[in-house]
Amino acid sequence: MAIQSEKMEIDVSPGTPAMPGTVAREAMARPSRRRWLVIGLIFVVTLINYLDRLTVSVLAPVITEAMKLSNLQYASLATWFLLAYTLSQSLSGRIYDRMGIRRGFTLSVVVWSLSAMAHAFVRGLGGLSVLRFCLGLGEAGNWPGAAKVVAEWFPVRERAFAMAIFNSGAAIGSIVAPPLIVWLQLTYGWQGAFLVTGGLGFCWLMAWWALYRPNESPVAAPVKAGVVPSKSDEEAPKWLALLRKKEVWAIVLGRVLVDPVWWLYISWLPLFLYKVHGFDLKKIGLFAWVPYLAADAGSLVGGLASGYLVKRGWRVQNARRATIAFGALLMPAGILAARSESPFSALALIGLVLFGFQVWINNVQTLPSDWFSSKTVASVAGLGGTGAGIGSMMFLLLTGWVVDHFGYTPILTAAGLLAPVGTLLMFALFPNREP
């Protein structure tokens, strides 16, 4: 059976004969048109994920004043979230590899949406800390789940762009969050803000169960048609087996050092504008979204750039490396933002940092699907997320202490140096060969 077009759908109608192994592998490589609907759903749930995550951050000036929190105590809220997020990344990766994408996302969204809504009923730091922990447990699953979606539904040359679409959900969520959450707080109070943003996840779940068809992915369709995968394809390798691979350590250690840059700004930007540049809550709602618009552009540019280089004949690894290096070289702009006297210059420079980060992370998150089978991708992505969580948790706690004692300049300077160092370490560990 000849393959006529890469866009051709797999015939899985009743009575279709089982395909030979070679043809099955070819069929599994064919992209389905439905992949764009699927990645669109992942984009939307990622946007909701960030709305729920950022509600506390946007309302930080109100919450810290109401509860009389120091910078270190506020940092502890982000740390509780990141502790759960870190633990749940690897666990969620295994859950998605075993349960499948449809049920895995359902579990994640239910946990984080209930936790987000419950924020409306707490009155103290202890209760808020517990709910931030529960929120992190659920939200972590979004990323290994999305990596698995990309691996199962998209061919290699489109994976970075598919990652860009879903990652842009984080950036768009960050753009929408400040004005939306400030408006909700001013209109309905902070309790109403948590109830509305938390409830969006349940609306998404109705669309997810109505529209997602797991048996229509290019990976699942040959199985439905009668081709039985080998045992090696059915079972995900153990964590210890994965941790023996240099490729896994390259991803993990790179994210340990570089992901804290993103977490620094999404956790501290409103307070930075409030305390350093004198922004009130309305100004935060009007202007704090601007750097995330740049981040969204970076996500799309990062996905398109490496895909373009692959189409131009570059080796996949070289295309990824060039794009990752470009993103890393932009992130030291945060050093200048720390020293800017104008809040708008600082926002522009922070926007450049977040543009670079999204270029970087979009391609780093594509590496598991380049190097590992679909049954392993979520586990590897989860380990990378665990590394990101460990590094970010330590850096955010350090941020609280440093800001209390020395202000924001030292910590923004340190963050500006992390990306080049982490990227060089990652390149040193990755084997110089094609996936």
From TrEMBL:
The chain crosses the membrane at residues 35-51, 71-92, 188-211, 248-266, 286-310, 322-338, 344-364, 376-402, 408-430. PROSITE patterns: MFS (PS50850). This is MFS transporter. Keywords: Membrane, Transmembrane, Transmembrane helix. Its main location: membrane. It is found in: Membrane. The keyword Transmembrane applies. InterPro entries: MFS, MFS_dom, MFS_Na/Anion_cotransporter, MFS_trans_sf. It comes from the Bacteria. It is a multi-pass membrane protein. Residues 38-434 form the Major facilitator superfamily (MFS) profile domain.
